[in-house]
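Whether sequence alone determines local backbone shape is best considered at the level of individual chains. For completeness, the protein is quoted in full, as a sequence line and a line of structure tokens:
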Amino acid sequence: MISDITLRFIDACRHILKEGMASNNKDLAMKLGTSPQMLTEINKGRSNIGLVAIQNIVNNFQVNSSWLITGNGKMFSHEKSMPDFYPEGIIRLNVGESDKISGIAASEEPAGNNIPALMQDLGLPLIPACKLRAFLKSTNDGSPKSIYQRYRIPDFASRGAEFLIRMEDNSMSPAYGNGDLLACKNVSGSNFIQWGKTHVIDTAQGVMIKRLFDCEDNKDAIACTSDNPRFPRFLLHLEDIISISMVVGSIKFE
């Protein structure tokens, strides 16, 4: 099903071509970071738009990201009114508003400092541990997802954070306590893991938050440790890992 965001994206593309901001469909596709074939599929309503194209249409053509995501405001950013933010730098989406972000494909999402403007505008989603697998799957295949709470924290976005998750025990105390929010970046499929750093690991037995270390004696496993000495070190076999996300920041609660 084509999302409302994709329909607004198509309208913006038509306006860009009409105003001569791109010479033709091929030129527009190149500036959006996609192929002419994919842009044709999107314009024909056969595919939803991905985050890279959303980022590029916002950055390269000054399309108003608030209008693109929610339908509020004007099509172009120089005409838009600023959204209302909470004084503490937090933005929250109500349940009804969150439905408007369905149908965004994130498989093309760049890492590091090249975070899509969409993520910076809407904020990082707070994902319950039990929903992590579904969330990561939805960002990979572009399927709709419902997220009801987002936090706008620019420092986390600049570090490549993609979501927040809540610490639910004291195994990583004193670094992270029960209830703290951890900003995470999915590194699944990467051959480079920063040993000694804290990661969120989704396994067949559930989600755990541990420091990861290379296991020299067993290349088919990694060593998982807790900062709290009451929790013993253990080995986790690679075949049992579904996803790995690195913690790049945190919000502590006293």
In short: Strands lie at 124-125, 150-151, 163-166, 181-186, 198-203, 206-214, 221-225, 234-237, 241-251. Confidence is low (pLDDT under 50) at residues 80-118. The chain has nine helices and nine strands. The first strand starts at residue 124 and ends at 125.
